[in-house]
C-alpha cells in the first residue's frame, strides 16, 4: 500500500484556504500521513511552489520527525516539536511561509510532500534551507506521498 498524505483543511487539488496563506493568518495546515513502510525511522515534510516565476519556491520543511508520528497539527511552529527541526524557507525564516504568489500571476500549485526515511536524522548541520532538506530526504527516502493545494491572488 502506498503512502498517503492528507489534510482536514483541504482535499488534494483544492484551493488552500486563506487562513493558511500570506493573505490570512499564515498558519501551517494540519497534515496527516499513513501507510509508511515498516522500516521507516523518521519523516521529513517539504512544501514547495513549482510555479513560482523564478523557479521552485520553498515554503516549508520540517525534518527529523519521529517515526511514531503520523501528523503535524495546524500552526506547527519552529522548535515546537522537540527533536523535529525546521529549515529556512525562501522567505528567509525558519518555519512555515504560506502560499503567496505574485498578484495576477495565476494559480500556483503547492506541493506538500512527506518522505518516509531510512535514517533517524538527516545528515544536515547548521541552518539548512528547505531545498537542502528535500535533497537529503530524497537521498534517504523509502517512500513519499504528496498533497497538492492551489492558490491564486
Overall shape: globular
**CATH H-level superfamily:** PEBP-like
- Compressed to H and E, one letter per element, the order equals EEEEEEEHE
CATH architect. name: Alpha-Beta Complex
* Terminus-to-terminus distance: 37 Å
The CATH C-level name is Alpha Beta
CATH topology: Phosphatidylethanolamine-binding Protein
Give the low-confidence spans: none
Our count of domains comes out at 1
Rounded to an integer, what's the Rg over CA atoms? 14 Å
Task: Name the helicity range.
Answer: under 10%
Strand order of the largest sheet: 6-4-3-7-8
Strand content range:
25-35%
Count of β-strands: 8
- Quick check: average pLDDT? 95
- Could you describe the largest sheet, including whether it forms a barrel? 5 strands, antiparallel
- Number of DSSP helical runs: 1
Structural class by secondary-structure content:
mainly beta
Question: Would you give an account of this structure?
Answer:
There is one protein chain. The chain has 153 residues and is mainly beta. The protein has a single domain (4-151), classed as Alpha-Beta Complex (Phosphatidylethanolamine-binding Protein), CATH 3.90.280. The protein has one helix and eight strands; from the N terminus they run E-E-E-E-E-E-E-H-E. Strands 6-4-3-7-8 form a five-stranded antiparallel beta sheet, with helices on one face. Strands 1-2-5 form a three-stranded antiparallel beta sheet, with no helix packed on it. The termini are far apart. The mean pLDDT is 95.
Amino acid at each position: 500500500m502506498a503512502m498517503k498524505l492528507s489534510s482536514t483543511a483541504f482535499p488534494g487539488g483544492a484551493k488552500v484556504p486563506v487562513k493558511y496563506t500570506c493573505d490570512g493568518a499564515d498558519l501551517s495546515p494540519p497534515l496527516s500521513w499513513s501507510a509508511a513502510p515498516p522500516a521507516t525511522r523518521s519523516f521529513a515534510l517539504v512544501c514547495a511552489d513549482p510555479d513560482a516565476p523564478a523557479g521552485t519556491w520553498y515554503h516549508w520543511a520540517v525534518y527529523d520527525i519521529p517515526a511514531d508520528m503520523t501528523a503535524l497539527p495546524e500552526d506547527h511552529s519552529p522548535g515546537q516539536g522537540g527533536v523535529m527541526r525546521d529549515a529556512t524557507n525562501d522567505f528567509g525564516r525558519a518555519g512555515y511561509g504560506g502560499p503567496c504568489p505574485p498578484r495576477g500571476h495565476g494559480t500556483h500549485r503547492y506541493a506538500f510532500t512527506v518522505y518516509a526515511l531510512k535514517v533517524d536524522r538527516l545528515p544536515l548541520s547548521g541552518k539548512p534551507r528547505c531545498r537542502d532538506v528535500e535533497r537529503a530526504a530524497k537521498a534517504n527516502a523509502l517512500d513519499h506521498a504528496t498533497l497538492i493545494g492551489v492558490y491564486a491572488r
